[in-house]
Amino acid sequence: MKTPILIENIIYWNHKFHIYIGLFLLLFILFFSFSGLLLNHSQWKFASFWKERKETGIITPLTIPVNPDSTSLIQDIMKQLILSGEISNVKLTPESINFMVVKPGTSQDIHLDLKSGISVRKEMVFNWWGK
Hints:
Number of strands: 5
Radius of gyration: 28 Å
Strand order of the largest sheet: 1-5-4-3-2
CATH architecture of the largest domain: 2-Layer Sandwich
Shape: elongated
CATH topology of the largest domain: Double Stranded RNA Binding Domain
């Protein structure tokens, strides 16, 4: 008499298992279909964040500290320009310093001429899709 209860119990848990596994796999199918739509329809208005970016160029005179190391020089430049974000692509030469400051939605490329103290900043601002 124990077998019918055991069989009913197995059928019950098998049914639950298949429902939850199916829901779990449905999540991946939805992700795959959504990413396929975005990759194959890049001409849609909301997905064209690169074409709709706004670029500006700003020239600013800065004061350069005497005998700084690279880290303190970059931090001082960022304080003077009132910038925040992640620093990358640092290139130091005896005449200039180039680096990029990135945060979600904006990218700023900074070039500083160490002889003249002139900073040229190129800023790109993206729409909400490019963030």
